Amino acid sequence: MISSLLNTVASTYSNSDLPRLAWAQMRLAITALAVAAVLALPPAVLLGHVRRGAFLAVSLVNIGRAVPSFSLRWGFGLGFWPTAVALVLLGAPPIFTNSYAGVRDVPAEAVEAARGMGMESGQVLRRVEIPVAMPLILTGLRVSAVQVVATATLGAIVGYECLGSPIIIGLTTTEKDMMVRAAATVAALALATDGLFALAQRGLVPWTAKAQGRRERLVADEEQPVELTGHLPEFS
Question: Could you give the C-alpha distances from 134 to 62, 187, 201, 202, in angstroms and in order?
């Protein structure tokens, strides 16, 4: 009887439900990523600028990685916002650590040169440190976004209807078609998210792509064999 009931529930999902479930998952992921960025970026940039308090801050932020996200969902309740809180804790560490490392590791010579030109601390941060750190900052956002989009699937465990719903139902019933389609949609969304951030990173920091191209050309030139021209002298 229970198996029959579960199969009946599973049959309520069809291919026409995939766009609705995908949008519900992306809405959750976008909200969590935005909150994580707002909470993690400012302190990471400021701490990287002053180069203080790194160990304590990174340790506190990494708590989100130490605790499994599914257990956080059980602790925070059911629905959209409790799941979003867990995803914020999951998405904040990559944003914080990459942003902090990017600003902290700006070459001291560049900072001293900016100060020598008369820039104040805030100007150095805005005009020198943040632009130099931008590739790492965007990488942190990219890693966090992919993690959040994929992990949002687990929201179905605590009653939030998303792509995880037909997946979880499919694990306990004989209705496997929608489970496979939903899982493939999750993978496609994660790959699309990674691709969009890669394009955004190439557009916002085009100098990194140019530098990579120059390095590849230099390596190719070094590996190209040297051709000897002319004739070698003959010795009798």
Answer: 21, 27, 9, 11
